[in-house]
User: Which sequence fits this backbone?
């Protein structure tokens, strides 16, 4: 396993960071282009808040944990200035997108914009120790927490007939943010949130009998197997949750949670792996009934890189050979299909057979985040073996 | 061309209507099940308003224009009663979905619910001549018209930075509804709306130079080629628009519009056809840049059946051999892949290669509508040749 470390480090250093350093910064208006075609050319200039703050986070994080680089910190600072100047609405929420020039284009219907702002600002504090970044991280985190009761606000479409459901992603995000805040702000203030969310995710969303991590659960932790939404399974989300659970459970010495998260990861990889063409499905129905999304059988870069992170960490913590086998299997499938050796970076979207359906390197939902985070974490953890 | 008529009629009579007659009606609570698996078993009981009213429309329409059948009228009446009792919110709008029992589940964010209600109620008036159905058709149509200025209401997400855009689908729907109201209510009240919309769609959304029907145009009929939304092309929508344009232009003797709609249809089929695997793409980017939807290259039943309707009508009106060739090409591709000879009805979703990705016969977006409408119209028009 250790021998992979160099490959992950080189890919990050030579094939991924340079692509985004070169093509993403909008040197005229500030912020970043995330809609980058195969060769890095811009095919849309809209500035989607998730993508913008994730780029801020990644450049700042790299400078703190990969190698100190003032240029990356400058790029992150530039993003921060543009986004805090233009992106906040009159209720303190981040809107979902801006025009290239910085005029709000899409309203703040999505609470995860505030989450990625929290991450980006916190990482900038870690990289610079300037209090204004910590202040913005805590402010945005407070906005996210304040939106807990009705996260979608006026844009909520559910009515009384729909049974209230909890979303796994929400608790995974809480766990993620608490960890980032601890690492970046250097406080222990969020330990209790972390410990609580580890158990909550496993208690509420992990169904050991079926071997499935559900995306939706009722408020008392039941699964709505009679509805297609209740049966919705997202193996990539499960992998991402798995490594966050493992990382935090290890940090907090929650041994039972490590065991449970390992079991969850193994069962979900088994469930999500495509026995016919290889790779991990985007979505599945818990009972094998029709999935409501056309693209359920696509193979997405982020699903595969999150699974690499999860299996690498599970192996590091447990040394169980199943995790090394899974890592190698996913590694082979992923690295022989996603990387673009001609123009750099990786393709994002393959069909079930593993052939690219899109040439883009970035878009509304893909930027400088899952792939470099995977390469960063794996090169570190594998080298430490 | 004429020889196909029998095949279309038999498919409707023997393979499609019986499936929905048998599996769709909810005999306990009223309304219909639209989430039907391959064998007709129900995999979700949510009652999506588009799907519900389309089923009402189809059964009523079949009884008026295919063959008189009191059972079909009873099914449509039952749907009408359930939907008018449970589906209307305090502002008179149809909500987007109900639970099986009829409790509102999803709010009225989508204005097309009111449109399909208009169609369903109007067809019931045609089938029964009972005034209450005409009243509801005109009431729902009025609600749709009244929502013109801000169709999404509180659920609108666009802010000042986004240039206001017109949607082709909105005007296509107006055209469609005006035609349905004329045919079903037996008045000429909507002629002016029809004539106006024919020209408006062609003037605003058809770009002759590029040979593309755009989904979005600025308020003065420009195309935003620098944004991915502005470049969004939907060949199935273009085919559906084409036959509505042709039908109405023929009815109103708008000869120039017939010419233009024929040209549009031919260019859009050329653009939308997959030269590698056959079939018509779901979406494309006007300039060949990356499309923003993962599923752009899927092959959907409704796209193909709308293209059959359009080419059949274009051939009937013009007798140009290109349309017969296109009809035959689409017919071959469609009929050798979509029909399910084991359990009846057609598959809805194929991948780019033409292999089914879903076994469902109905769902959140597929019910008893595009396919039977195609079979109904084609058997009629082809027999008249």
Assistant:
């Amino acid at each position: 396993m250790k021998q992979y470390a160099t490959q992950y480090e080189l890919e990050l250093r030579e094939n991924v960071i340079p692509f985004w350093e070169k093509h993403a910064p909008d040197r005229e208006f500030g912020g970043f282009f995330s809609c980058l075609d195969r060769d890095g050319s811009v095919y849309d200039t809209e500035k989607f808040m998730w993508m913008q703050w994730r780029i801020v986070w990644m450049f700042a994080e790299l400078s703190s944990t990969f190698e100190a680089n003032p240029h990356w910190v400058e790029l992150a600072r530039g993003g921060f200035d543009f986004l805090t100047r233009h992106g906040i609405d009159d209720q303190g929420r981040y809107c979902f997108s801006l025009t290239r020039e910085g005029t709000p284009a899409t309203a703040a219907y999505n609470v995860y914009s505030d989450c990625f702002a929290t991450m980006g600002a916190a990482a900038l504090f870690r990289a610079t120790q300037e209090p204004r970044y910590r202040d913005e991280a805590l402010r945005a985190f407070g906005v996210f927490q304040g939106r807990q009761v009705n996260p979608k606000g006026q844009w909520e479409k559910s009515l009384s007939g729909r049974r209230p459901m909890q979303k796994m992603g929400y608790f995974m995000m809480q766990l993620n943010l608490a960890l980032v805040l601890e690492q970046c702000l250097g406080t222990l203030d969020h330990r209790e949130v972390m410990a609580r969310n580890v158990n909550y995710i496993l208690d509420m969303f992990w169904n050991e009998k079926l071997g499935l991590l559900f995306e939706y659960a009722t408020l008392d932790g039941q699964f709505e197997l009679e509805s297609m939404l209740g049966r919705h399974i997202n193996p990539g989300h499960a992998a991402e949750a798995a490594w966050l659970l493992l990382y935090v459970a290890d940090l907090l010495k929650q041994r039972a949670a490590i065991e449970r998260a390992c079991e969850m990861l193994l069962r979900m990889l088994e469930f999500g792996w495509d026995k016919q063409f290889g790779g991990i499905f985007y979505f599945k129905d818990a009972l094998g009934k029709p999935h409501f999304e056309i693209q359920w059988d696509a193979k997405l870069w982020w699903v595969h890189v999150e699974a690499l992170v999860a299996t690498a960490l599970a192996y590091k913590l447990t040394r169980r050979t199943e995790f090394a086998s899974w890592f190698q299997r996913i590694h082979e499938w992923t690295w022989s299909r996603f990387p673009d050796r001609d123009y750099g970076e990786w393709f994002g979207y393959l069909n079930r057979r593993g052939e690219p359906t899109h040439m883009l390197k970035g878009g509304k939902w893909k930027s400088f985040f899952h792939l470099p985070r995977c390469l960063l974490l794996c090169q570190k953890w594998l080298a430490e073996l």
